[in-house]
Amino acid sequence: MSQGTFFGGEQTRCLAPRGLIKVLDLDVKIEEYHSKDHLANFPLGKVPCFIGDHGYKLTEVTAIMIYCMY
């Protein structure tokens, strides 16, 4: 079961969480930030952002990294 979905692009703020997910081989799906799913869950279009498997939403880099680690 996936931990959730990370939405981000090539912005500098998105590189650390994206790298953490790939290096640690976390079970997190990575999607681009302009997808329909992203805009449906985050209408303000903030990046980076994360939605957990139970609908838990995060929009700050540090919060996303800490949540994915545990």
Strand proportion: 15-25%
Structural class of the helix and strand makeup?
alpha+beta
Proportion of helical residues: 25-40%
H/E element order? EHEHEEH
Shape: globular
Radius of gyration: 11 Å
Could you report the average pLDDT, rounded to the nearest whole number?
A: 89
Number of strand elements: 4
- First-residue to last-residue Cα separation: 15 Å
Oligomer: single chain
Enumerate the strands of the largest sheet in spatial order, edge to edge or round the barrel.
2-1-3-4
Count of helical stretches: 3
- Biggest sheet details: 4 strands, mixed
Low-confidence stretches: none
Short description:
The protein is of the alpha+beta class. It is built from three helices and four strands, in the order E-H-E-H-E-E-H.
Textual characterization of the structure:
Strands 2-1-3-4 form a four-stranded mixed beta sheet. Strand 3 and strand 4 form a beta hairpin. It contains three helices and four strands, in the order E-H-E-H-E-E-H. The chain is of the alpha+beta class. The model has no long low-confidence stretch (mean pLDDT 89).
What topology emerges from the helices and strands here?
Blueprint: E1 4-7, H1 12-23, E2 28-31, H2 36-41, E3 49-52, E4 57-58, H3 61-69
Parallel strand pairs: 1-2
Antiparallel strand pairs: 1-3, 3-4
Helix pairs in contact: 1-3
Offer a few descriptive terms.
70 residues, 4-stranded mixed β-sheet
